[in-house]
Amino acid sequence: MEEYERNIHKHIETHGCSVTSVFDPDGNEPPFSYSIGIAKTAMAPELIVVGLKPEISHWLVNEYNRRVRAGESFVPGVLYLGFLEGFAVQFGPVAREHKGEYMRSATWLHQGPNFEALQLIWPSTTGIWPWDPEASDWFRANQPLLAGGSS
User: Fold this and answer.
1) What Pfam families does its record include (predicted)?
2) CA–CA distance, 29 with 65 (Å, rounded to integer)
3) Whole-model pTM above 0.90?
4) What is the CA 29 to chain-centroid distance, rounded?
5) Which domain range does residue 68 map to?
6) Of 1, 6, 86, 102, which residue is most buried, by most CB within 10 angstroms?
7) How far apart are CA 92 and CA 78, in angstroms?
8) The total number of structural domains that make up the chain
9) Is 99 contained in some domain?
10) CA 86, CA 134: separation in Å to the nearest integer?
11) How do 117-121 and 46-50 pair as beta strands?
């Protein structure tokens, strides 16, 4: 087992999950952070956050982990408060093909993409969602929706 794999297991044992943040140093692709282990330790879907700074998305994944461990569950399409100050967020399913593409360490832990995962979806500062007609091309590209295909 590689050192990073041992670290993932250590974080899961200590915190109930590990969080991986990925960013393109050239800024061509949006950054993202995701959980590894929540599905095994809390029997809740893993989580991914796309398009926010790693510090924020890492915190959001840990807050989700805390809340599911406290017994809360999250349903796609419902508005939830307490994640981003002043804004509600929503959750959406993550398709199987996106789990392998974005959530590689979670796919490794679960020995394939057969695990539940949700995407935390956030609005713009003006309250626009990525699927709204008035959403800019930049906003849509910075927060691609990972649903579709099989989940």
Assistant:
1) DUF4262
2) 26
3) yes
4) 16
5) 3-142
6) 102
7) 9
8) 1
9) yes
10) 21
11) parallel
